Amino acid sequence: MFKIKTLLKNLGPGLLFASMAIGTSHLVLSTKAGAQYGWVMAIPIILANIFKYPFFEFGVRYTNTTDKTLIEGYLNRGKGYLWFYAFITLITTFTILAALYTVTAGLFINLFKINISISLIAFVLFAFISLLLIIGRYAFMENSLKFVISILFIALIVTTILVVFKGQIHTVNDFEPPSIFNEAGILFLISLMGWMPTTVEASSWVSLWSIEKWKSEKRKPSLKESLQEFNTGYSMTGILALFFLIIGWFTLYGTNTQLSGNAVTFADQVVRLFTTHIGSWAYIFIAVSAFATMFSTCMTAHDAVTRVSLDIIALLYPKFGIQAKKHFFALGIIVLAIINFIVIAVFSANMGQLVALATFVSFVVAPIIGYMNLKNVMSADVPEPHRPKKGLQYLTYAGIAFLSFFSIYYFWVVVF
Q: Among residues 316, 303, 328, which one has the least CA distance to residue 97?
């Protein structure tokens, strides 16, 4: 009982990680994987979660043992490491938030059945979430998301059980299972694993959230407690990914239904497939749950990208300092909102292009970021007893090799 109480008290960074991850990769990509390819897509989902685990775990390990963020660790390895991470952050800044807010705006339009453009709804969401983050800061975000994630987890368990109990939908007569190993299948596989459970560069996000939690509570947990808390959140993301896949598999696989790349149409398809076997009475309940999922993802990602950007600037240009970082937080939130609103306005409602660009960048750099994180935790910064054991090191090398292989294969498919 004592361990459970301690775990609940320490819930924070791992929970925010789960909230951030259970967004596009789960609601969009996992559902689409089950709907188009069936149960077989559980294999890449499980493999991606296993092989990427060390990359995220190292963010918690490094920060807990050094009181520094992963980004500070990159600078300690050499300024080239930090500049590379800054370049990746710059690219993802223009894609990740835009993709998340586009999907969320589509769900909002679907939920309230209003005839308003994606851009306008996205603008309102940017303004509202920016205000919440500027006023509430970390403490508000953590407390509110504990409630959202708890409700979502329960709702998805109930939905999955009902869908499985109802049984798989009958396939149409002319249905032919699509191939995974053609160009379209490989590109989808790249997208799925690129954002499953989320982008590898987000490992530094957990690092920054850990420090914010310690500051707000004026207490630093032990390494064991921090890892237990993170593992809880990480396990939750993997389980929920499989739930979404099962729902897509049981309700759409074999019907030749194509999920749209338009955010509003896609949102309507997703919510309706959830109610196919349950009944129309569950439509509002599921629509609200799906919207809450994406809303919380937008909030955590917006907060994290702002903190990472300010941390990079402060390290590259020390004259800004810690105090300047605090003062610029609100400005950073607003600037990111404006930049990504412009991206949405340019790309209109074509969610597919935004997600494809974001996942491409994330997947290609994943093995490099993973290697950088390994260098951090194996450096002199971390006392030897707190460095990862051999088994975790081997899993890291396997993950780097796994992601590198698919990156090379991706280029071969696209170029040749």
A: 303
Instruction: Compute the chain's Rg from CA coordinates.
Output: 21
Evaluate the CA torsion angle 317, 321, 323, 325 in order and state its sign.
Answer: positive
CA nearest to 138, candidates 56, 236, 211, 40: 211
User: How many Cβ atoms from other residues are within 10 Å of residue 324's Cβ?
Assistant: 14
**Nearest to 353, CA basis, from 218, 263, 248, 219:** 263
> Under a CB-based contact definition with an 8 Å cutoff, are residues 82 and 314 in contact?
no
Contact between 359 and 195 under an 8 Å Cβ cutoff? The reply is yes
Which is higher by pLDDT, 15 or 310? 310
DSSP 262: B
For residues 373-386, average pLDDT: 90
Residue range 319-343, pLDDT digits in tens:
766 555 667 888 889 999 998 888 8
Domains in the chain (CATH in brackets) are 19-415 (1.20.1740.10)
Contacts of 43 (CB under 8 A, 6+ apart): none
Q: 126 vs 247, 350, 366, CA distance in Å?
A: 30, 18, 28
Q: What is the pLDDT of residues 229-276, one digit of tens each?
A: 888 888 888 888 898 899 888 888 877 777 776 656 776 777 776 666
What is the DSSP-derived secondary structure letter of residue 30? I
